[in-house]
Known about the structure:
The protein is mainly alpha-helical. It has six helices and no strands. It starts with 8 loop residues before the first helix and ends with a helix.
Amino acid sequence: MSARGVGNPEAEEKAVDTAWRVHAAVGEWTARVDAKASFALTLESAAGAVIIALSGNGNIFAGPHGRVVRCLLWSGCVSILVAAVLAALVVAPRLRASALRTEAPDNFVYFGHLMHREAEELAESLRRAQPLPVLSRQLVVMSRIAWTKHRQLQLSLVSFAFGLALVVLAAVSA
Length: 174
């Protein structure tokens, strides 16, 4: 037996327990980034609505005068729109549909895999399976998804702040 616990049932059980704890943490981080992205999308949508409202007759953006003001306004609007799209991508479900059927026989953690299994076959698989490799694969996939979501939210917030600054600058310059 090696020091890494290979062949050691107690070490294997501890590793599986740790993997489930990490799984729960990554799931929680993903839920939090989805909530933050929903809030960001709300702010970005509200900013878009305010800009549209201020573009009506007699309002500040009704007919922005000068090329610079129009350029600032339109650039800000595009940046806010990009921010909203990025935030929407964060909350969009990541189902990985194309690979699920082929991955299903070797996986039993993700609901997308489970829907392709039969109950008796799954029960047998769970009886004989070594859960650590399955959990490890799932943790890697979940972590990549969580990283992507966090990065998209980060870019959304930067794009929103930049766009809002341009719109405010256009309003001040109008």
